[in-house]
Specification:
single chain, about 750 residues, alpha+beta, Immunoglobulin-like, TIM Barrel, 4 domains, 7-stranded antiparallel β-sheet, 13 helices, 45 strands, about 20% helix, binds alpha-D-glucopyranose
Length: about 750
């Protein structure tokens, strides 16, 4: 509906508005399915000053003469108001001269940024917190900082400072929470965009982009969870992963030969440490040429995959987009012949350098190129490779950044680099996902470093090149939580730290903190100290084994959370605020998180600490290690020797668990254990009647073959488990759906 020149509002649903500057339709890389306008906007009675008043069943929107908007919910509570004053000058802008002087002393300062083509500014009320924005550094709350969306490969240590306004990913979505109100905004614009969250002024926050159109979604709801559901209803949800991908992954840049890989695998088995995957970094290739292998160091990949698979271990290989410019190399020849590469403004193939030296860049905006790239995955899967790790797809380049005017020809719809940059990794992930799905047939396992909103449909992500620093272990928690709040559920940070040298203590605390990270991978850089679980002393080995085993024990819980995510978009790791929004103590809790709704983890992330303060929200919590029942709504001090990661289970929870295993083989899983954590351990309270007894505890469990897409044809089981504190009949099992033949042979219940 037209509000004024260059301002239109549509209602996607009663709670989701699309606010844009163009008339008609516009395609999107993130919102791929037609969204329609299910809810009708209708005229409503105006209020003072508003020239136009519109409403849905849930929202009222008042537009003033100058186009500024105010959005209220159905209780007439003001959710969001455009800032009406003059925008303030950026206080931190330097002249080029000042910047140069600072640079001479080694300061990393910026100057002369491209101006935004449009900017939207919203009033700050003062009491809000802001979440989301993907993998940005720092803390959960993004208010008072400013950020850039421009996918960037920057190997410096990542910390919350102006150098790191841009990171590898562009997820231009954020959530604003105030007392009694919450909403989200998704700016669907792939150009370089800016998010000043109250940095330039405490009166407003603003966002804008250097080009393209104003096109944002306003998502309302009652809870943070509902906002994420809304956002992922637009941009999509991560499909179910293969179950083994939730196991432990071991990586290093690089395991350089087949023998070395086999030796690593054997060590896992010798030390009795579960492991499902080993990753091959760039050195498995022939001169870093993608979709090739080094015939000397990896003479027979198929044999290697098969030897590993006997140990339950799968191979995952890295693939970069930068394609070596070398005649006689099939990727280069075919790509040149078929016009698959980006061109410079003169129409010649554009060259830059990446690992292979002189390189060219596939045009993933073209469906034809994506199909060609996707088909190459067959070269790997035929040799037994089970997953593809996409790296350097910002795209990274060693001879200066790709100029803005590089052309991606598309399929007759050419686009400039400045529009494509932030979706380059996204489209590469899409090509990889679709290739694996088509040519391998199993649920594709893709990891990507760069991405855009909507990439969750195609890929998992890791947070890129962190370092073995305690600050980076600390930061990995809010970083993963904000990725999850930004619709990206299957995330992980390199365990132990990638760059610089880890220590035994840091590795121990990291494996504890990462125990429930959806992507569970230890990875380290060349020239750094080795950090496989056995790299140090026996204590470090034992602690690694203990937490990797704990992870495998709760795989069915993690898998259930993945299933839940496909329905709701809710992440696996959640900030406490997602379940305890009314409790302000949770709003900025940076060093604790929930795993689903039943488990709370409060890892130790300080060197030398052997106890830590833990905040437990309302209700009864059960200390996982001691089984002590604790009344929440307070801070407690928990003793945490090096081998203890404080973990709490919410009273009344049911958790599914598997028995011990060395790797995930869904076909061999015949039994399931249900752990029931009643609020009190008094027998009478569990099996007898007690006044004000809680409702029955209930848990929905999902089971399928864990590998392919048969579940889409109904081949899955959905169980409802119930424990009653009121009646003395213990566990009840109800089948909500029965379509998978591998039903458990035995389900046992234990009271914890
Ligand atoms: C990049 C990746 C890192 C990888 C390295 C070599 O730095 O982020 O994970 O090991 O390249 O491929």
């Amino acid at each position: 509906m037209k509000i004024r020149e260059n301002l239109f509002i549509d209602a996607v649903t009663d709670k989701i508005l699309r606010i844009h500057s163009f008339d008609g339709e516009k395609s999107s890389f993130a919102v791929e399915k037609p969204i329609g306008t299910k809810a009708r906007l209708r005229e409503i009675p105006g209020v003072g000053g508003a020239v136009q008043a519109l409403g849905t069943e849930y929202l009222s929107i008042y537009a003033a003469e100058d186009g500024t908007l105010k959005i209220y919910d159905k209780r007439q509570k003001l959710l969001c108001a455009d800032y009406e004053g003059e925008l303030e000058q950026e206080c931190h802008a330097l002249t080029e001269e000042e910047a140069e002087q600072m640079r001479q002393e080694g300061h990393n300062v910026r100057s002369g940024e491209e101006a935004c083509r449009f900017q939207a500014a919203k009033k700050l009320f003062g009491d809000e917190v802001i979440y989301g924005l993907g993998d940005k550094t720092g803390f959960l709350n993004k208010k008072n900082y400013d950020y850039v969306m421009w996918n960037s490969d920057n190997p410096d240590p990542q910390v919350e400072n102006p150098t790191f306004r841009a990171m590898y990913k562009s997820l231009p979505f954020f959530i604003v929470l105030r007392e009694e109100t919450v909403y989200g905004i998704f700016l669907d614009n792939t150009y370089q965009s800016y998010f000043d969250m109250g940095f330039g002024s405490s009166r407003y926050y603003s966002f804008g982009a250097v080009d393209g159109e104003l096109d944002y979604y306003f998502i309302a709801g009652d809870t943070v969870a509902e906002i994420i559901e809304g956002y992922t209803s637009l941009t999509g949800r991560a499909p179910l992963p293969q179950m083994w991908t939730l196991g432990y992954h071991q990586s290093r840049w690089s395991y350089t030969s087949a023998e070395e890989v086999l030796a690593i695998a054997k060590n896992f088995r010798m030390y009795g440490i579960p492991c499902d995957a080993i990753h091959l970094d760039i050195d498995y290739m022939d001169h870093y040429k993608v979709f090739t292998k080094n015939d000397e160091t990896f003479p027979d990949l198929e044999e290697l995959s098969s030897d590993l698979s006997k140990m339950g271990i799968k191979l995952v290989t890295i693939i970069d987009p930068g394609t070596k410019a070398e005649e006689g190399y099939h990727m280069y020849d075919e790509g040149v012949q078929n016009g698959c590469f980006a061109k410079d403004s003169d129409g010649k193939i554009y060259h830059n350098a990446v690992w292979p030296g002189d390189s060219v860049f596939p045009d993933f905006t073209s469906e034809k190129v994506r199909e060609w790239w996707g088909k190459q995955t067959e070269l790997l899967t035929k040799q037994g490779i089970r997953g593809i790790w996409n790296d350097m797809n910002e795209p990274a380049s060693f001879e200066g950044p790709l100029p803005n005017d590089i052309v991606f020809p598309g399929d007759g719809l050419p686009r400039l680099h400045k529009e494509v940059h932030n979706v380059y990794g996204h489209l590469m992930a899409k090509a990889t996902y679709e290739g694996l799905k088509k040519y391998d047939g199993r649920r594709p396992f893709v990891i990507t470093r760069a991405c855009y909103s909507g990439s969750q449909k195609y890929s998992t992500v890791w947070t890129g090149d962190n370092q073995s620093l305690w600050a980076h272990l600390q930061m990995s928690i809010p970083q993963m939580l904000n990725l999850g709040l930004s619709g990206m559920p299957i995330v992980g940070a390199d365990i132990g730290g990638f760059g610089s040298h880890t220590t035994p203590e840091l590795l121990c605390r990291w494996i504890e903190a990462a125990c429930f990270s959806p992507l569970f991978r230890n990875h380290s850089a060349k020239y750094t100290r080795r950090q496989e679980p056995w790299a140090f002393d026996k204590q470090t080995l034992d602690i690694n084994r203990k937490y990797i085993q704990l992870r495998y024990k709760y795989l069915p819980y993690l898998y259930d959370l993945c299933y839940e995510e496909t329905k709701t978009g809710l992440p696996i790791l959640r900030p406490l605020v997602m379940h305890y929004q009314q409790d302000k103590n949770t709003w900025e809790c940076n060093d604790e998180f929930m795993v689903g709704s039943c488990m709370l983890a409060a890892p130790v992330v300080q060197q030398g600490a052997r106890e830590r303060m833990v905040y437990l929200p309302e209700g009864i919590w059960i200390d996982y290690w001691t089984r002590e029942r604790i009344m929440g709504g307070c801070y407690i001090l928990k003793e945490a020797p090096l081998d203890v990661c404080p973990l709490y289970i919410k009273g009344g929870s049911i958790l599914p668990a598997y028995g011990e295993m060395q790797s995930v083989e869904p076909e061999n899983i015949k039994t399931l254990t249900l752990e029931y954590y009643p609020e009190t351990l008094k027998k009478t309270a569990i099996f007898g009647r007690k006044p004000n007894a809680q409702e029955d505890s209930c848990y929905i469990h999902y089971q399928d073959n864990g590998v392919d897409f048969a579940y889409e044809d109904g081949e899955y089981n959905l169980y409802e488990f119930m424990f009653s504190e009121k009646r003395s009949n213990g566990l009840q099992v109800k089948m909500l759906h029965e379509g998978f033949l591998g039903k458990y042979e035995e389900i046992t219940a234990v009271i914890c």
